[in-house]
Every structure is written in structure tokens, then in C-alpha cells.
Design goal:
The protein is mainly alpha-helical. It has a domain of 28 residues. It contains 1 helix and no strands.
């Protein structure tokens, strides 16, 4: 087993290319957090208590 670093190759490209590695990975992280927040908001709208 060889551990592997995070691979951003499977993620869609950013709208604007960013050359600075820190800024680029920061943009990936921000996009991921926004996506997660959106998913959580959608999940809040579902009422799981009645789905028994």
C-alpha cells in the first residue's frame, strides 16, 4: 500500500485558471464548502422524521 496525496484531477476546472497553487487549492476548498452548504440546505428541506 502506497499512500497518495489528494488529487484534484477528478474535479471540474475552475471558471478562471489560477496559477498560484495556494490560491487555486483555496478556490477548490471554497467551492467544495459552498457545495456542501447547498447540499445541507437541501437536506434541511426534507422531512426525515415522517419517513418511517
Amino acid at each position: 500500500f502506497q499512500p497518495m496525496k489528494a488529487n484534484f484531477g477528478i474535479m471540474p476546472e475552475l471558471a478562471e485558471p489560477i496559477k498560484d497553487k495556494r490560491l487555486r487549492y483555496g478556490a477548490y476548498a471554497t467551492r467544495a464548502l459552498n457545495s456542501m452548504r447547498s447540499s445541507l440546505e437541501e437536506a434541511k428541506e426534507l422531512n426525515f422524521a415522517t419517513a418511517r
